[in-house]
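Severity: low
Component: inverse-folding endpoint
Summary: output formatting inconsistent between runs
Steps to reproduce: submit the following structure tokens with default settings.
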């Protein structure tokens, strides 16, 4: 999508989503039950400093995550958001492609994409698909092998797409800002909610989070997203 050409007046809903949105599709959250892979915490495996020392192991972890993604499908919440078409803007922390698979046209991936690779030598990013990274694979632009990492933003890396979160300060009374499925531990949800000075603000998580001030929201739903997505979207869903 061309973010700079986005007509904010034509948008009715801005979604800020996290791992909880895809949990009911079968993609585990990081902080959910069993956040270990081969005895490593998922957060460590997703840290750029760990990748520099253990690239092969980290590639295997992302091979596993891509394989998991290849075997799941969008859930009712992804589909309900997609039904809004171009009226929805998705700012997602998720690295999966379930919003796109559901048919969402406007998706900003704040933390990159699981199906892409990134060459840290020449900067090239490309669609790699959901298969495993093999020893013979290399950057199609420069031929580098060891410099290629999964196309996701790791912990302790910069996240250039965060600049787009500033759109929230431009929301108007007709907008709904909906936060779904995020603990707020990585991106400060409270700061985002404070940045929205107009419109309806909705929070939906499975349970309360120490990082999220629910008083900042007009409506709060602690329930599986697929069960409350109609209320989260609200009356403007029709049409
Ligand atoms: P998190 O694991 O910190 O928090 C998950 C949140 O989702 C919790 O607040 C929980 O209450 C809520 N939740 C769980 N199941 C839910 C459901 N069925 N309905 C509604 N809410 C539900 O996730 P986060 O805040 O997104 O931060 C973790 C980081 O991990 C992000 O940076 C993200 O990039 C990455 N991540 C992405 C995926 C993915 O792409 N699907 C999966 C795991 C982790």
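Observed output (run 2 of 3):
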């Amino acid at each position: 999508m061309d973010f700079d050409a986005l007509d904010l007046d034509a948008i009715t809903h801005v979604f800020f989503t996290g791992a909880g949105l895809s949990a009911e599709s079968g993609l585990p959250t990081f902080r959910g039950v069993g956040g270990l892979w081969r005895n490593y915490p998922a957060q460590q495996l997703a840290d750029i400093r760990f990748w520099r020392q253990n690239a092969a192991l980290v590639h295997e972890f992302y091979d596993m995550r891509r394989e998991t993604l290849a075997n799941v499908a969008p859930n009712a919440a992804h589909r309900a958001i997609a039904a809004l078409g171009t009226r929805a803007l998705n700012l997602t922390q998720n690295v999966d492609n379930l919003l796109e698979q559901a048919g969402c046209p406007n998706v900003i991936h704040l933390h990159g994409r699981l199906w892409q690779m990134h060459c840290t030598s020449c900067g090239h990013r490309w669609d790699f698909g959901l298969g495993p990274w093999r020893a013979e694979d290399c950057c199609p632009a420069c031929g580098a092998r060891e410099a290629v990492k999964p196309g996701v933003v790791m912990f302790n890396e910069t996240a250039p797409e965060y600049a787009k979160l500033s759109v929230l300060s431009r929301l108007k009374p007709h907008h709904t800002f909906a936060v779904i499925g995020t603990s707020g531990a990585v991106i400060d949800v409270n700061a985002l909610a404070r940045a929205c000075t107009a419109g309806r603000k909705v929070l939906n998580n499975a349970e309360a989070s120490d990082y999220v001030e629910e008083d900042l929201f007009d409506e709060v739903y602690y329930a599986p997203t697929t069960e409350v997505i109609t209320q989260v979207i609200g009356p403007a869903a029709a049409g």
